[in-house]
Amino acid sequence: MGTSGQCAELVLPLADPRASLGVVGGKGASLARLVGAGLPVPDGFHVTTAAYDAFVAEADLQPAIMAALEQLTPDHPATLEAASGTIREAFARAPMPGLVAGAVARAYGSLPGEAPPVAVRSSATAEDLPEASFAGQQDTYLNVRGAAEVLDAVKRCWASLWTARAIGYRVRQGIAPDAVSIAVVVQVLVPAEAAGILFTANPISGRRDEAMVSAAWGLGEAIVGGLVTPDTLVIDKGSGAIRDQQVADKQVMTVRTESGTEERPVPEALRQAPVLDGAHAAELVALGARIEALYGAPMDIEWALANGAIAILQARPITALREPAVPPAVEWKLPRPKGQYIRGSVVDLLPHPVSPLFATFAIPAISRVGVKEVLKPLTRSDPVLPDDYITTINAYAYMSAGYTAREVWWVVTRMVVSMPRLLRECIPLWRDVIRPAYVATAARWQDCQVEALSVGELWAAIRELNDAAMLHMAALLVATTGASAGAEGLFTRVYEKLVRRDGDPAATTFLMGYDSTPILAEKSLYDLAKASRDDPDLVGFLLTSSIERVVEALRSGSTTVAGWPAFSERFRAHQKAYGHVIYDLDYARPLPLDDPSPELETVRMYLRGEGANPHERQATAAEKRERATTAILARVRGLRRWAFQKTLRMGQSMAQVRENALSDIGLGYPALRRLLLELGERFARAGSIAQGDDIMWLEVDEVQAAVEALEAGTPPESQMAPVAQRKATHEAMKGVVPPPMLPPRKKYMGIDMTHFTPAAEDSHGADRLKGIGASGGVVTAPAQVLHGPEDFDRMQPGAVLVAATTTPAWTPLFAMASAVVTDIGGPLSHGSIVAREYGIPAVLGTGVATRRIRSGQTVTVDGDAGVVILLGGA
User: Which residues contact residue 551 at a Cβ distance below 8 angstroms, ignoring those fewer than 6 apart?
Assistant: First the structure.
């Protein structure tokens, strides 16, 4: 098929060398490249951007387009729809220019067959690009027959450049309305028996040696439109062998009709039959390898299968492929051959592999300037404790529970005999000495002009803040964590043994209903949502805009919504008060201050009417507590009354202190991260690392060496290769289940360790996970697996929250959750305390929940038995 003369620039053959991005759009340019490489692409032609421009010019549509867009208010979706409607009506009324209509009709007539069915697809000039993927923004029409219908479909494709969705997308991307044009691709329709998508790298694991295929019956629109759950195959790219195949129950398929396409039920015999056999899967992956080599990048490819032959319909680069995983280390070598290491206590705050800088800089400081400095004044001696009190093994944090004879001797002769003083003075030492010093150090560096500091001054400030933060962390280990565990345990024992009768509430009822920093933060967001409800424009902007758009408005103020300044001022006040509350003890991970998206999602949750009112919930818990306390005091006398009151006061005060103290961990993190990122930028400018935040992937000795080099006026050694390798290893280690205890044992020094460590990987059944029952009750509901704050927007009301662990910054999600399940944690972890506040079941310390449970899968959480039962669905 070919064209000539004046029409050549209006219509081009599919493989024409002039088929560039500006002439035929992103989709068209990609297809031209595929055809030129000899790949099996259906025959067809391009209707170029020159044809669109001629149509707009001859009908004088540009003034109407600009006039409609002038009325646009991006924050108000209704104005997007109004502008789109005006423009598309103008397009519908305008006639097709004769030259264009003739060129398209002749090109269509040259296709094989009489009135062949074709696919007519939009191809915008800013489409299928890695930096701005416009996929799905414009229209596609399938099974179009006859020249008149093709011309009509072409005009509708042109008009789809101005859908409300496409206009809004370009506004958010900052693309001017006169900076885009649109072409159209017309291709012979493949009478597909099956179709799907091929990823030439595994998008789940990032592995480049694997391909992933989605396959369903009929045309591919059912998959693209999300109407059907397709079969999923993972295929070895080298051999073409299928490594994993999940055959779905495929209920719907898209098929051709006389006048277009429609969705029909899949025949019963095909619903659970595999779509692809091994031979076709291998052939498809081989074609994918050729396309990947052509583009020099992993690709996302649409394909169809008809009469035993595979056709390639479209190919674009994968824009968000994770770093490839590398084979993880499997040998759990002990730092001390005779040591004992457990995943407990402070490790609850380090569920993921730890960054190299935190592992080599912060963790040693917990022992070096932390635990020993806290215990020294309390025991009136120089502590003799392991230097690896907290350490990392294969990047996972562990606590040392193995002591030498000398260390045991010090514990017995110094620490144990000082226990009365410890109980009296540890809280005052933290509250009156260590915490104020930490706050003062953080404040001193928070507002400093980091750009004015030399490299040496930056590093000195970082060391000072790191030591203050880890001393504070160590004080919490000694003062609040241990004391709260002892106080709650003592009260529970006294209550259960001396006071409780049948029908009395659980011991935890007496410790609930108090204000704490996480609860106050949740109330702050709830109150912000409540104050916004009376402003319809503000509510509309918050609920209809993408979260990225809301964040951008927060940072730049770029919105015309009248109530926005007051909202943003109040939200910033919230962040100033609570933005330091950590998601993870590792300060390489962002804070709420760094990314306000999760907090804004919480505000949107409350605006939608989801979640519980935290004021009412707390008042109810406080009322239950007071009522239960009054009832017990009216009944007991003498020694039992004294013991109940004494231990209750201890338990209640420590419950409040513990949650507030955990929330204080990050008080210095904003300043510390700011200083570290500035130093990282200096390293990046000197060529040592690629970007500022790569400093978190350096070890402390490497940072020290780079600082010394820069101070001496010499370039630091490049660390780009080690950083890349560490990132890949870190990603791979996320898929490893760290043993709860090394070496493995159920008892240590006569103590049952299953109450203090996560469950071992081999302790679970096929459909049952064992853990620690931390909050009573039984719930059956769909699960939602969240790996971090980046997933908070996926939480659904009534879902079971499944996470590696939870920290105070996770508290607002409990308002939506029906139950909580975690990999690590125990009866005194943050998750258990907050779950009891919310009255929802919690099973913690399963070890493998985030790996064994799938989002959408129905599970039963039994907080009384400490069991999670895995049911069906996904």
Answer: 595, 596, 597, 600
What pLDDT, on a 0 to 100 scale, did the predictor assign at position 425? 77
CA 379, CA 140: separation in Å to the nearest integer?
76
Q: Provide the domain count of the chain.
A: 5
The CATH number covering residue 834 comes to 3.50.30.10
Mean pLDDT of 36-53: 93
Type and span of the H or E element at 820: strand 819-822
For residues 766 and 653, state if they share a domain: no
Angle at 577 between CA 677 and CA 544, to 5 degrees: 85
List pLDDT tens digits, range 463-522. 999 999 998 888 887 776 666 667 777 888 899 889 899 889 888 888 888 888 888 999
Regarding whether 137 and 98 lie in a shared domain, the answer is yes
Which has more pLDDT, 839 or 60?
Answer: 60
Calpha distance 304→215 (Å, rounded): 9
Sequence-distant (≥ 6) Cβ neighbours of residue 745 within 8 angstroms: 753
| Residue 41 domain-assigned (yes or no) | yes
Question: Distance between CA 27 and CA 89 in Å, rounded?
Answer: 26
Instruction: Give the range of the structural domain holding residue 551, as residue numbers without chain letter.
Output: 496-583+592-665
User: For residue 334, is it within any domain?
Assistant: no
pLDDT tens readout for residues 130-160: 333 444 445 788 889 999 999 999 999 999 8
Examine the domain organization and report whether 180 and 134 are in the same domain. yes
- Same domain as 270, residue 165: no
Strand order in the sheet with 768-770: 768-770, 867-870, 858-862, 778-785, 800-803, 819-822, 842-844, 772-775
Determine, yes or no, domain membership for 855: yes
Q: Please check whether residues 287 and 396 belong to one and the same domain.
A: no
- φ, ψ of residue 241 in degrees (nearest 5): -75, 145
Which of 665, 700, 717 is at the close of a domain?
A: 665
pLDDT at 224: 65
Residue 591, token pair as written in the block: 């804070």
pLDDT value for 757: 58
Backbone angles phi, psi at 451, to 5 degrees: -65, -25
Query: Do the domain assignments include residue 738?
Result: no
199 and 152 inside one domain: no
pLDDT in tens, 169-182: 777 666 777 767 89
Same domain, 722 and 856: no
State how far the alpha carbon of 117 is from the alpha carbons of 111, 492, 499, in Å.
10, 76, 82
CATH of the domain at 299: 3.30.470.20
pLDDT the model gives residue 378: 81
**Cβ burial, residue 1 (10 Å; 0-12/13-18/19+):** middle
| pLDDT tens figures, 746-778 | 665 555 555 555 666 666 677 888 888 888 889
